[in-house]
Amino acid sequence: MATYIEVPSFKLNTGASIQGVGFGTWRSTEEEAYSAVIDAIKAGYRHIDTAYIYGNEHIVGKAIKDSGVPREELFVTTKLWVTGVQKAQECLERSVKALGLEYVDLYLMHWPVAMNANGNDPNLPSKPDGSRDIIPESEWSYIDTYKSMEKLLDTGLTKAIGVSNFTKEKMEKLLKETTVVPAALQIELHPLLPQQELVDFCHENKILVEAYSPLGSIGAPLLKTEELIKLGEKYKVSTACICISWSVWRGVIPLPKSTKAARIAENFKIVKLSDEDGKTVSELYKTHGVQRFVAPDWGVKIFD
Ligand code: A2P
Asked: What pLDDT does 268 receive?
């Protein structure tokens, strides 16, 4: 029998508590998202992650309401999309309304990218030549976006602000040029993309790190890794449990996503990895190679 441990709570630099395993809703259709969030809350998740661009905020919000769990027991994150960066307050108001809530717990800048809000598509505009309709950094940078997000804290519509898909270099610049230290950074993180330097930088600066695609995103490719399968056998848990438990072991909040009730429940059970096993997982990229599964083409360089 496996020995599961309670999912821990982490602290944000605002003082707020956040559950150490969150529920991801990216790529869930409307129908899937509703039952998935209901199932997640039933399984014990109190931390739900969504975004304007997922198109499911209203469904996630309805599921939260129908779950009957008091609002103050939940931690809800949503994100500012790239075409909204010059009207952050309007976008936050729209998201909070879609969710049917009075506030969100965390509002993240989804990408360090700015796109034309009046282009040929509300979410992913392109220029006549087919290239992305980006606002050049010289005109509007992620620093400008973040400065406008800082003001959102006064509205009461979000309790904390943070960023997503930032590199260490961008985090350093952000800390130098803005006032509010982001409460969280959400990035792609899993055994084949551990980004240890960036994680260490965040921890040194009291920025909580959240891992999206902790299983490698679509089809959970990491679950085929032999060493992870063996560790699963050792701890008598699923391979997914090893990936999720490894994240918690290194002080990072994983946001596993599933639409299947059994997997949703399975992903909320974690074990305490020994330091030796944790380090083994952290080093798998050395033999398997680094793999980034989520790298949309923005027409500008995002990652190193
Ligand atoms: P599904 O939604 O059909 O369960 P990530 O969390 O890295 O984004 O991974 C999500 C992918 O992994 C989805 O394709 C999801 O499929 C699948 N998945 C999630 N949890 C598990 C699990 N415990 N075992 C196997 N596959 C899983």
From this structure: 98
User: What is the percentage of the chain residues whose pLDDT exceeds 70?
Assistant: 100
Which atom of ligand 1 is nearest to 293's Cα?
Answer: 7
For ligand 1, the distance from its centroid to the CA atom of residue 67, given in whole angstroms, is 23
Please pick, among 45, 54, 142, 235, the residue that the annotation labels catalytic. Answer: 54
pLDDT tens string 87-115? 999 999 999 999 999 999 999 999 999 99
Q: Extract the tokens encoding 239.
A: 């391979």
- What per-residue confidence (pLDDT) applies to 29? 83
Pure H helices in 180-238? 196-204, 226-235
pTM over 0.85: yes
- Alpha-carbon gap, residue 18 to 130, rounded angstroms: 41
Q: Is the pLDDT of residue 304 over 90?
A: no
Cβ pair 99, 64 in contact under 8 A = yes
Distance CA 244, CA 253 (A): 9
257 burial type by CB count under 10 A (0-12 exposed, 13-18 middle, 19+ buried): buried
Residue with tokens 């809350």: 41
pLDDT computed for residue 212 by the predictor: 98
Q: Is 57 helix (H, G, I), strand (E, B) or coil?
A: helix
45 given a catalytic annotation = no
Ligand 1, CB within 6 Å, residue ranges: 24, 213-220, 223, 238, 240, 256-260, 263, 266-267
pLDDT > 90 fraction of the chain, expressed in percent and rounded: 96
Structure token digits, residue 93: 């108001």
Q: Where are the alpha helices (DSSP H) in 237-292?
A: 239-249, 261-266, 275-282, 284-288
User: Nearest-5° angle of CA 23, CA 110, CA 200?
Assistant: 75
In the structure encoding, which two tokens stand for residue 263, read together?
């997997």
Query: Nearest C-alpha to atom 10 of ligand 1 is from which residue?
Result: 217
Radius of gyration of the chain (CA): 19
